[in-house]
Design a protein that fits this description.
Elements: H1 10-22, E1 30-41, E2 47-52, E3 57-62, E4 78-88, E5 93-103, H2 108-123, E6 140-145, H3 150-162, E7 167-172, H4 180-192, E8 199-204, H5 218-226, E9 231-235, H6 243-247, E10 250-252, H7 255-262, H8 266-305, H9 309-347, H10 350-355, E11 360-363, E12 382-387, E13 390-395
Parallel strand pairs: 3-5, 6-7, 6-8, 8-9, 9-10
Antiparallel strand pairs: 1-2, 1-4, 2-3, 4-5, 11-12, 12-13
Helix pairs in contact: 3-7, 4-5
Length: 397
């Protein structure tokens, strides 16, 4: 059995058709217009209806979370809708999965712009919380605009007048026509690669609404969102608000206003610096005066708390005299004690006794060498006799 003879189940055929249809780039991003009929709403809030014209009809579904706020459908409405073609497998039917709808009278361009705005808003590209503050004193400013437009000259004039200290980094791009979105995106990417930029200006002068198409392009919106530097837009007239304005960190009404929003006024800065200079000088003088007063007060406290040298010297001298008197009295007492002890020792000195004519008689050898009695000697004993100026030997007979 060849490939053409292969028998397939219904589910395989319908699944193949669904994959084939959903793989189509055209059918996955489609705008169609027609009249609503057979409109119904499920308990879950999903909308089901048919879009038809004089020759054909297609079943449509709009799930609850995709219904635009404030927009209602009913039979007989003529609408323009965005979505994708898919296949409802259970019935094998083509179905338009609708994610956006507006009355047909709005116009296709306005409807597409509204759909893009709602989708980017849902993604958070317009969220005020993600918008970055502008630097107070930008020194390198990127600029995306047409090299031949009045917007370039307007921005240059404002920068020369308000903030001539800044360097302008120019990335030229077409701002009108079919090639404009791609060139604006390329210019933003070039500036994103520049080192040390402070802010980027994306500007163009006024024109008709269709002339601003490049700034309602999804690619431009995402390039602004991806910029590593804050972006200020000034597109068209004051009443014109584009998708780029909604994504930018700051939206200005005109190119000149964008340059003004991005820079300080050098005259005001100089005036503020002069005021600050005077305030700082006054503050320094006041601080110096306060410190001088503090030093003088501290010196006064030191003088008052300093020791009175003359009084202390007199007190020291009085103490010295008292100490000398105490020492002298103590020496006299000790001298008297010494003399008393010396007299007592002198009275006990054996040499003094000898000087008075007495002698010490000692026997040679023996256990009791000193002779204190005649009974302590015998005939023949040798005796040593010590007198005051010497000693001599004698023998008992």
């Amino acid at each position: 059995m060849g490939p053409t003879d292969q028998v397939l189940p219904v589910s395989a055929v319908v699944s193949f058709l669904r994959e084939y249809v959903e793989a189509s780039e055209l059918l996955s991003d489609l705008w169609i217009t027609g009249e609503v009929s057979n409109y119904s709403q499920s308990q879950l809030g999903h909308r089901y209806f048919t879009l038809r014209d004089a020759k054909a009809a297609i079943r449509c579904v709009m799930f609850r979370d995709r219904m635009p706020r404030g927009f209602q459908l009913q039979d007989g409405d003529r609408i323009i809708a965005h979505g994708r073609i898919t296949v409802y497998i259970q019935r094998g039917e083509l179905q338009f999965d609708c994610d956006f709808a507006r009355p047909e009278g709005v116009g296709a361009l306005a409807a597409k712009l509204e759909e893009l705005r709602l989708r980017l808003e849902a993604e958070g590209l317009f969220d005020p919380a993600r918008k970055r503050p502008l630097p107070r004193f930008p020194m390198r400013i990127g600029l995306v605009t047409s090299p031949g437009g009045a917007a370039l000259h307007d921005v240059q004039f404002v920068l020369r007048k308000r903030w001539p200290l800044a360097t302008l980094v120019f990335a030229p791009a077409m701002v009108q026509g079919e090639l404009a979105p791609g060139q604006v995106v390329a210019a933003l990417r070039r500036l994103a690669a520049e080192p040390d930029l402070d802010v980027i200006l994306v500007v163009r002068g006024g024109g008709a609404s269709e002339d601003l198409h490049a700034f309602n392009d999804e690619r431009v919106a995402r390039a602004i969102y991806a910029s590593p530097y804050p972006v200020v837009t000034g597109v068209g007239h004051e009443t014109d608000v584009t998708i780029a304005d909604l994504v930018a960190d700051v939206r200005a009404a005109t190119p000149s206003a964008a340059a003004e929003r991005a820079t300080p006024d050098i005259v005001a800065v100089r005036r503020n610096l002069e005021v600050l200079d005077r305030a700082m000088a006054s503050a320094v003088r006041q601080t110096a005066a306060g410190l001088a007063a503090d030093v003088e007060a501290a010196a006064g406290r030191l003088r008052r708390s300093a020791p009175r040298v003359a009084e202390l010297q007199a007190a020291v001298q009085a103490l010295a005299r008292d100490m000398e008197g105490c020492i002298e009295r103590q020496l006299q007492r000790e001298r008297a004690r010494f003399e008393t002890m010396a007299a007592r020792l002198a009275a006990l000195d054996p040499m003094a006794t000898l000087r008075r004519g007495f002698a010490i008689v000692q026997r040679e050898g023996g256990r009791q060498p000193v002779v204190s009695s005649v009974r302590g000697v015998r005939a023949g004993d040798r005796l040593r006799v010590a007198v005051s100026d010497g000693a001599f030997w004698t023998e008992v007979r």
